[in-house]
Structure formats: C-alpha cells, structure tokens
C-alpha cells in the first residue's frame, strides 16, 4: 500500500544557522500509530511543522496522500489535523464556536452533528458554551484536540500530547487515539517517554540531533531496549574468563574483579540462575551482585555511537 506520508531528504536550517533537520527520510503507513521519540531539542516539533507546512523546509520533500505539501499545500493540509504543544486559540470564544470555526477554515460545510460528536467524544459537551479562558488546562488541551478533528482529517499529529497532563486525561487521550485508529485515522505523536511509545505505537522512530537514527516496529525495539546487565563482584580477581562460562558471553572488567552479563529482561530464561549455579560449581565466589537497566538517555547514546561506528 502507498504510504500516507512520504518524507524524502527533509532538511531545516533555521535563520540562526541551526540545523534542526539533517535530511530525514520516512514513510508513514496508512492507519498506523507512529511515535516519534527523542530528547529535548531533537527536532520533533520542527519535523511535524515541516510536514504540516508550518515550517518552511530548506531541503527535501513531503507528500501527504500523494499531494506535495508545498505545491499542493491546501490539499495536503486538509488531510491533517494538528494538535500543537501550545494552546493557540481565541480565549474569549466559546468551545463550540471554536471547533465549528476550525471546520470552516478547511472549507468543510457546517455539520453541527459532527461537532457535537467530537465534543462528546472528548467530554467537552457540557462545556460547549463556556469561553475557552474559563476552562482548566486539561480541558483546554481537549479543545485543541477537538479543533484538530473538526474537519475530519485522515492524519492526526499530536505534539507531546501527555506532557504535563494528569492521569485521567492521559487515559482518555489514549482511549481516543485508539478509537480514531479503529476508524482508520493515521496518528503520529511525539513523546519523550519510551513507556508511552511502547503502550501506544505500532512503530517508533528515534530522532536525535535532527537525524532519524532508527525506525522500528515497537515490539522489536522493546526487545532491544529490554537489555539488562548483571554485574558480579568477584571475591578474588580472575585472570581470564574460564572456558566453562563461554555460553554466557561474559565480559571481565575492573581488572578481573567484575563479570558482566547482558541479558534480556523480557526473556523467559534470562540465564542468570544457570550462570550463578555454574559459578558456584567452578568455585568462583562473589562478594556482591547488582543489576543495571539502561536508561533511555543511555540507549540514545548507544544508538548514536552504534551509528557512528557503523
Ligand atoms: N525558530 C527557531 N529558530 C532557531 N532555532 C530553532 C527554532 N525553533 C527550534 N529551534 C531549534 O531547533 C532544534 C529542534 O527544536 P524542536 O523544537 O524541533 O525540538 P523538539 O525535539 O521538538 O524538542 P522538545 O522535545 O523540547 O519539544 C532545537 O535546538 C531548537 O532550539
């Protein structure tokens, strides 16, 4: 199937000279939930802006459902709903009018029943006549989503949808995202949280320093990220790893005082009990054991180094 969004060599250099996107290639599949994961300043918002035509790319191209997002801007943009990180709406307007107006902006005919449905889906119906400024922060976020959905887009972008929201809103947000996906809407969200990507996304892209360094099915990525390290502090230093321990592919560090074993924390058999049993059989005593789970930051660093080495 033809991808719904096709990004080729996308570049953005800001007037300051900062290269926020360094040639990104990516195809978004029709109907998937795609999470763009990366630390602060990685280029996530710039990338969304460049796809939606809000940021002028300095190189490359983007097609949305076959429409070039510069040449055929209106056609491309009409297919996209965008929920930005920041609130950008008239604070004195009512909730219902805001959402209905947004539909009109895309040249869609009036459809009060649809606006009602969108407001109900987002638990905003009771607030329909309130002015935006009277709403709580969480409610305002919901309005931004309603606004993005008012013209029935095929693609929804959510820029850090759960940054600073409470548990209830987060849960509602995910329920809504799943419902939209079931209706065939393609969803692209940005996040700092690996757990969020794990829970929600079909695929994950990792962006660092303006480069998309990895795109992977979530299940495959989680396997890679599930690596954990066991460190065995030895009572007596070893000159070398005994051949009887070859199966575990250990590393001997700290001048022979530590054995390091990397395992998959999701695996049914981690190999840890058998390793400890074998150490005992070989008469290798240890003074302490500790485990270490890679943090997202370390994983990012590893990915970047791995890429440089390659
Ligand atoms: N208008 C601008 N002018 C100059 N530099 C900018 C501009 N907008 C963003 N940048 C820079 O481009 C880089 C990428 O910013 P961007 O907002 O895309 O990152 P992000 O991954 O969305 O970060 P965050 O997770 O913090 O939202 C950052 O270094 C940022 O300072």
Quick summary of this structure?
The protein is α/β, with parallel strands linked by helices. The protein is built from ten helices and 14 strands. The chain is 34% helix and 28% strand.
Write the layout of secondary structure elements.
Blueprint: E1 5-13, E2 19-28, E3 33-37, H1 44-52, E4 59-64, E5 67-68, H2 73-78, E6 80-83, H3 95-105, H4 112-121, H5 137-149, E7 155-159, H6 167-182, E8 186-191, H7 194-200, E9 203-208, E10 211-217, H8 218-225, E11 227-234, E12 251-253, E13 258-264, H9 272-281, E14 286-293, H10 296-309
Parallel strand pairs: 3-8, 3-9, 6-7, 7-8
Antiparallel strand pairs: 1-2, 1-4, 4-5, 9-10, 11-13, 11-14, 12-13
The structure holds adenosine-5'-triphosphate.
Structural write-up:
By secondary structure, the protein is α/β, with parallel strands linked by helices. It has three domains: 5-79 and 154-220, P-loop containing nucleotide triphosphate hydrolases (Rossmann fold), CATH 3.40.50; 95-147; 227-293, Alpha-Beta Plaits. Helix content is 34%, strand content 28%. It contains ten helices and 14 strands. A six-stranded mixed beta sheet has the order 6-7-8-3-9-10, with helices on both faces. Strands 2-1-4-5 form a four-stranded antiparallel beta sheet. β4 and β5 (67-68) form a beta hairpin. Residues 14, 16, 18, 20, 38, 40-46 line the site of adenosine-5'-triphosphate (ATP). InterPro entries: AAA+_ATPase, ABC_transporter-like_ATP-bd, ABC_transporter-like_CS, ABC_transporter_ATP-binding, P-loop_NTPase. Residues 5-234 form the ABC transporter domain. It comes from Sphingomonas olei. Keywords: ATP-binding, Nucleotide-binding, Transport. Pfam families: ABC_tran.
């Amino acid at each position: 199937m033809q991808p719904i969004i096709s990004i080729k060599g996308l570049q953005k250099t800001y007037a300051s000279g900062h290269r926020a996107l360094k040639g990104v290639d990516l195809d978004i599949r029709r109907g998937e939930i795609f999470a763009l994961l990366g630390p602060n300043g990685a280029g996530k918002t710039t990338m969304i802006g460049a796809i939606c035509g809000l940021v002028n790319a300095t190189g490359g191209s983007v097609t949305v459902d076959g429409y070039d997002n510069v040449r055929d801007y209106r056609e491309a943009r009409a297919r996209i709903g965008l929920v930005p990180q920041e609130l950008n709406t008239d604070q004195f307007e009512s909730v219902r009018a805001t959402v209905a107006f947004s539909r009109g902006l895309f040249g869609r005919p009036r459809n009060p029943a649809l606006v009602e449905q969108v407001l109900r889906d987002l638990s905003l119906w009771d607030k329909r006549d309130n002015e935006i400024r009277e709403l709580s922060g969480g409610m305002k976020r919901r309005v931004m989503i309603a606004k993005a959905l008012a013209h029935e887009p095929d693609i929804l972008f959510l820029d850090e949808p759960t940054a600073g929201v409470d548990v209830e809103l987060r849960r509602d947000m995910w329920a809504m995202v799943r419902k939209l996906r079931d209706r065939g809407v393609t969803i692209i969200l940005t996040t700092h949280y690996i757990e969020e990507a794990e829970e929600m996304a079909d695929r994950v892209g990792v962006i660092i320093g303006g480069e998309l360094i990895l795109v992977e099915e979530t299940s495959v990525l989680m396997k890679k990220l599930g690596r954990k390290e066991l460190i065995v502090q030895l009572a007596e230093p070893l000159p070398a790893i005994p051949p009887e321990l070859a199966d575990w592919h250990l590393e001997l560090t700290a001048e022979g005082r530590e054995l390091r074993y990397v395992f998959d924390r999701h695996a049914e058999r981690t190999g840890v009990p058998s390793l400890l049993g074998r150490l005992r059989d070989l008469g290798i005593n240890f003074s302490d054991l500790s485990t270490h789970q890679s943090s997202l930051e370390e994983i990012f660093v590893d990915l970047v180094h791995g890429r440089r080495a390659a």
